[in-house]
Amino acid sequence: MSKKLKSSEVIITRGIQLSGFSSILFVLMILFFLLYEGIPALFTVPLDDLFSSRWYPIEEYYGIIPLLLGSLVVTLGASMVAVPFGILTAVYISEIAPAWLKEILKPLVELLAGFPSVVLGFLGILVVSPFLRDVLHLPTGLTALTGSLLLGGIAIPTIVSISEDALNNVPETYRQGSLALGLTRWQTIWGVTVPAARSGILTAIMLGLGRTIGETMTVMMVTGNAPILPNSLKVLFMPIRTMTATIASEMGEVATGSPHYHVLFFIAMVLFLFTLAVNIIASKISFSRMKRSERILS
Amino acid sequence: MKKHLIFPLLLCVFCLILASCQSTDVNNQSQNDSDAVDLYLENKGSDTMVNLALYWAERYQEIHNNVRISVTGGGSGTGISSLISNTVDIANASRAIKDNEIELAEENGVTPVEFIVARDAIGVIVNPENPINNLTLEQISAIYSGEINNWKELGGDDRPIVRLSRETNSGTHVYFLEAVIRLGDSDDKTIFSADTLLLPSSEGIISEVRDNPNAIGYDGLGYITDDVKVVGVSNLGDKIFVLPTIETVNTNQYPIARDLYMYTNGEPEGLILNYLDWIFSEEGQDIVRDLGFVPVVKE
After folding, report:
1. Taking CB atoms and an 8 Å cutoff, what residues of chain B touch A8?
2. Which residues of chain B make contact with A228, given a CB cutoff of 8 A?
3. Which phi and psi angles does B86 have, rounded to 5°?
4. pLDDT, mean over chain B
């Protein structure tokens, strides 16, 4: 009996081990594949063309700069929406809301995280974009701003839920100590609790941004996909084209092995490096948090 | 406890595997049965037509279940060169066969016979609030290449022009580029203005034109709904504005339309003839209309 139990345990441990290793293997394989298909772009397309400012691949204009900046503009716009909203919501849920409200709000926010982005895109086309056009008197509502607002909505649940965990992890003694020193509740939140959870909140922001930069469907539907080179702040109110939308809409029809095909993989490579950088920064921050908490305990 | 959980699980997995094995067996069986009376048709070519060809093939196979039609894309050129090397029964093409291709085919003992099976017309659309009703082909070209940026320049309201287009992977995009923006001049290297909005779906174009009085767009006739305004377009050099309808497209009065062809080797007979006759039948042409193309009448 006990022997059988052991053998099943062995299978389970091996299984878990295998799935752990497989995820590493998959990431490495994807990276290898991206490099293998993307690097040739550097040789088949002259560098001047690759980093020029016009993207029109069917006539061999392969300038990826507008796409790169387009992705950055939308992501920065989204962070301007998602960071303040996300952190304030997390502070409210964790520090201010009564217990019963907290129990409603938290699952609701997490439900928002599972909202299909294509549905959000439809909302964008039918509601947000006409609204922005009318209110701001724009030529069209399909702009970087529309994309930023909706992507902000996608990043908020991530930011809220991780920041809220970080705030919850702040030892209760901090708050009690602060209140005992005569600080108001407001001063306690902004002077003690939030700074103590700072690294967790920064991780939340980075992960939220990681989600926005890789988001495809919504931006493809609402940003207009015009590869305009951003050159001033006005670009937020103009259509732009992101890297993700470009890959999604063009990969399906491209001839395998053509320069266009390799350039698309090159864009995917750049995108991968972006998200990799974001994730490395996020994990660096959470590691330093661990050290600090260890220091506190010792 | 763990043991109790694992065994039912394993059992379930086994059942699933067994069940799936059985069902594939059944499928293979039924396919083998019908294989005995199969008639094969190879159909290859134009990517624009691949959807249409697929619908035709599927419907035809539903009616004649002893027929198998394989449809592949690859482009009009691929289709025609396969016909020249006599590896397909029917080649699809969204352009007419060239003289040198006919010569090549005849050298190989192949006589291409042409059938116009459908037509593809593209309507230019604006918001119903826009006072513009007609545009010349040259004006549309100037709008999309970025020379005209305000409706005022065309006698409309003082509004910026927002250009809408399908994505570059769409056949309609390429056709519009060649036939309208470059006005059919193959040496012209003009391309879409960089601020043209490239929308991933027809639905996106229609809804933006419907809501935005600044917008201009184009789309296949079948996709255009009643809540946008189709503008009349004139042929190169004249001022007679024509709205796209099945009649004006079939009489060549409307300029932004092209024929969609099927080519066979020699006068078709047997299954190929039957298939082509069915394509020209009411049912076949209804599929043409459903997919947003313009139906044609044989002869």
Report:
1. 2-3, 6
2. 194-195
3. 60, 40
4. 83
Count of A-B CB contacts under 8 Å: 80
The residue type of B252 is: N
pTM of the predicted model as reported, rounded to 2 decimal places: 0.76
Contact between A140 and B212 using a beta-carbon 8 Å cutoff = yes
Homologous superfamily (CATH) of B39-118+258-290 is Periplasmic binding protein-like II (3.40.190.10)
Cα separation, A167 vs A160, whole angstroms = 10
Separation in Å, CA of A2 to nearest CA in chain B: 11
Helix (H) or strand (E) segment spanning residue A21: helix A2-38
In tens, the pLDDT along A3-25 reads 556 888 889 999 999 999 999 99
Q: Do A130 and B197 touch (CB under 8 A)?
A: no
Per-residue model confidence as pLDDT tens digits over B272-293: 999 999 999 999 999 998 887 8
pLDDT for B56 equals: 94
ipTM: 0.79
Q: Using CB atoms, pick whichever of B160, B174, B207 lies closest to residue A58.
A: B174
Residue type, A105: L
First to last CA, chain B: 78
Q: Which of A54, A126, A225, A242 has the highest number of chain B CBs within 10 A, making it the mutation to test binding with B? A: A225
CATH number at A68-268: 1.10.3720.10
| H/E segment holding residue B43 | strand B39-45
Q: Which of B181, B117, B174 has its CA nearest to residue B148? A: B181
Q: Is B212 on the interface with A (CB under 8 A)?
A: yes
Architecture of domain B120-257: 3-Layer(aba) Sandwich (3.40)
